[in-house]
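Long-time lurker. I teach an intro course on protein structure, and each term I like to show students one example going from raw sequence to a predicted 3D structure in token notation. This year I'd like something fresh instead of my usual example. Would anyone be willing to generate the tokens for the chain below so I can use it in lecture? Attribution to the forum is fine with me.
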Amino acid sequence: MNVKSETEYTNVSTRYPFLDNLRGMTLLSMILYHAVWDMVYIFGAPWGWFRSQGAYLWQQSICWTFILLSGFCQGLARRPVKNGLKVFGAGLLVTAATLIFMPAERVVFGVLTLIGSCMLLLVPMRRILDCIPSVMGCIAGFLLFALFKGINGGWLGFFDIPLFRLPGWLYANLCTAYLGFPAGDFYSTDYFSLIPWFFLYLTGYFICRLLGQGGKLRLPVQNPLPVFSFMGRNSLIIYLLHQPLVYGVLLCGTVFFP
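-- Reply from a regular --
Happy to contribute to a lecture. Here you go:
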């Protein structure tokens, strides 16, 4: 099957309720997670379970879903450069706001910066990527993500199983931190480096191509679920607003109900 027949469905101006609903559900899970994070790390709630493996898996389920969905939707995007610049700019806005108003909880190279970067990087790469069979792209992208998952901690391996250490000179400054090699004094409350997460983004892109072979995107049939669909369609603005609103609500709660 040629590349055109695999990707021609991207020219159709169609919203897919399944994608909006899933994005909205994930966004709600993220809002709840951040509310608990604020309660524990800012307001001092003694919830030890939030430092457990279960809470880590909750956090990972959110970021994995968002990044896979973003890569998937790149296969449907008609204005990837505009979208990428908008999301990357939103990431810079989050960084600036946290550095000014909450420097102790600053976000440097957060998830929006990552997704915007991935969107922009994929544009010049797309002609080459579309020559790779979809199944091979899915497998290769996920295996590379697994191999580099521990890169922030200084090693290569398979997810949480280290195989060998990387040289310390790679971990030098902010530029290397953006790539995936943070220096010892680097700190961010929300950190998603280009490596390994770009490979998960690519996996989502190839899944979209795989499900779109034949010119029709094969997704579960689903009607829009009003709340989740609305959240999914407005995910960027909700993401930008949710943390100040959650923090404000919790702060008011501590004032009126100490």
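Some talking points for your students: Residues 1-13 have pLDDT under 50 and may be disordered. The beta strands are 155-158, 161-165.
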